[in-house]
Design a protein that fits this description.
InterPro entries: CT_C_D, Cyclophilin-like_dom_sf, PxpB. The chain is an alpha+beta fold. Helices cover 20% and strands 34% of the residues.
Length: 235
């Protein structure tokens, strides 16, 4: 939705989103979220990365946080005219040119199957594929880190083969171990913390992905490329 001023009303009106229009929503008094229109894909994410580079030059901005085909901007002070902020963001979006971040390549050894692959049977049932086919499809793909979030160091990875898409659970696992390699909808990732998790686990990675004592605590960064290497397959 796009929040705009209705000159004939005291409040705000909601303008329906279209496939071609970005959406801007107010998130509190100082924060605004721009969501890219269209499909969830690398093309939209590259424009989000470009928009993030643009707004970094805004002197009244405290922080900007790229998300999954969206960008959160937080101002230092509450804007006097929120509508002007919406218009400014939309103009910046329209002018944003696609960029490709030159990230590093990260290889993550994975123990597929075994005790941590608690959701692999359900994924096989849903996809109609064998467990071996699911594992092969997962590790043969190349993934891009779209954004970090959810937990310190957690990377949202794009590039999952549609044959192994799997919706998030309606009832999460209450204590999924840190390191589980998971699938959530159209994305895959590695659990950063032990705890409740609605994604579907198909394996385990012991690689340390986040070190709070390091100058660069998170192993992943937006734009990085990720490959999962089958260190062990236990089916």
């Amino acid at each position: 939705m796009i929040a705009t001023t209705n000159r004939h009303a005291s409040g705000r009106e909601i303008v329906p989103a279209t496939q071609s229009r970005a959406r801007v929503s107010a998130i509190g008094a100082r924060s605004f979220l721009l969501e890219a229109p269209g499909d969830f894909d690398l093309i939209a994410q590259r424009r989000i990365w470009a928009l993030s580079q643009t707004v970094k030059g805004w002197t009244d901005l405290a922080e900007n946080i790229p998300g999954m085909t969206n960008l959160l901007v937080i101002f230092k002070e509450t804007p006097e005219d929120p509508d002007a902020v919406v218009a400014r963001l939309l103009e910046a979006w329209e002018n944003a040119q696609s960029i490709n971040l030159n990230g590093k390549t990260i290889e993550i050894p994975v123990h597929y199957g075994g005790e941590h692959a608690t959701d692999l049977p359900a994924l096989c049932d849903l996809s109609g594929l064998s467990d071996r086919e699911v594992v092969r499809i997962h590790h043969e793909a190349t993934y891009r880190v779209f954004a970090l979030g959810s937990a310190p160091g957690f990377g949202y990875l794009h590039g999952l083969d549609p044959r192994i898409y799997m919706p998030r659970k309606t009832v999460p696992s209450l204590k999924m171990p840190k390191g589980c390699v998971t699938i959530g909808g159209m994305q895959t990732g590695v659990a950063m913390l032990t705890g409740p998790n609605g994604w579907n686990s198909i394996g385990f990675a012991s690689l340390q992905m986040f070190d709070p004592t390091s100058p660069t605590p998170a192993l992943m960064a937006p734009g990085d490329t990720v490959r999962f290497l089958p260190a062990r397959i236990e089916l």
